[in-house]
Amino acid sequence: MKKHILPALKLSLFSLIFFSGIYTLIILLVAQLAPNKGLGQTIEVKGKTIGYALEGQNFTQDKYFWGRPSAVAYNAMGSGGSNKGPSNPDYIKDVQNKVDSFLVHNPGIKKENIPAELVTASGSGLDPDLSPNAAYIQIARIAKARGLQESKIKAIVDSHIDPAFLGLFGTVKVNVLKLNLALDQIQ
Asked: Half-sphere exposure of 87 toward its Cβ, with a 13 Å CA cutoff?
């Protein structure tokens, strides 16, 4: 019996010390190398925090880029998806309503050209980014609403594209909040 209990106690004590102390310190040290020392990136305008770069925002006006829909109303306290599968009638109706709304606000766009990310929520419901294609498809609406040339807005999108990490990991993306702040700064 001592033959089994003593090694189990030693392993438990080692695990407690390593995972509660040493591992935690290692992760803390690695976080210090991250931007903003691992605390996330707040976006401030004139000294006032208006959002977070890693959290989606709800933009509905035609003069702004719209982000990905949220199943949790962009509430970071309740991050999550809708848990409805692609064959669920309620889900299909919800996506169709989003497609119809997008088409009303973006005349001239064909239904089959709408990127899926503009009408479906992400798993977290807080996705702050879009693909460049999802941003480009909104340029005509924004240019009309703001009275600007489409080429000027396209240049803003192009300047805010974040490449995949090391060109290999992740996807090419554009942060919606940063794009909309850039739009506000040009007017």
From this structure: 0
